[in-house]
Automatic annotation (TrEMBL):
Keyword Transmembrane helix: yes
Source taxon at top rank: Archaea
Keywords annotated in UniProt: Membrane, Transmembrane, Transmembrane helix
Protein name in the entry: DUF131 domain-containing protein
Transmembrane segments: 14-38, 45-62, 68-90
NCBIfam families xrefs: TIGR00304 family membrane protein
InterPro entries the record matches: DUF131 (IPR002849)
Organism encoding this protein: Pyrodictium delaneyi
């Protein structure tokens, strides 16, 4: 059985780039949180959504933050669904062909 060739040059460039983008995103997230706390005089607002199976658990310090968290969760769920269904939508399989 022949396996398809792996383009190691491309992979060796993309993996560090992906890791760097993850760390840059986390850094921007922390900087944004600290900037928001400093700008608001130490009063921070919080909110989030935890999805366990099909059940979302929504929490937040006020209703505006909860609305933003729910909208963000819906957007991320739709994006995840589109990414998972993308191979079917394009009509190809991700698996390599022989």
């Amino acid at each position: 059985m022949d396996t398809p060739p792996v383009h190691s040059d491309t992979v060796s460039r993309l993996i560090p780039a992906g890791i760097a983008l993850i760390f840059i995103g986390m850094l921007l997230l922390f900087v944004g949180v600290f900037y928001s706390i400093i700008r608001s005089g130490g009063k921070g607002e919080y909110g989030g959504v935890v999805v366990i199976g099909p059940f979302p658990i929504v929490f937040g310090s006020n209703s505006d933050v909860v609305k933003i968290a729910v909208i963000g969760a819906i957007v991320m769920m739709v994006l995840a669904l589109v990414i998972m269904l993308l191979p079917l939508l394009i009509g190809r399989s991700i698996a390599p062909t022989r």
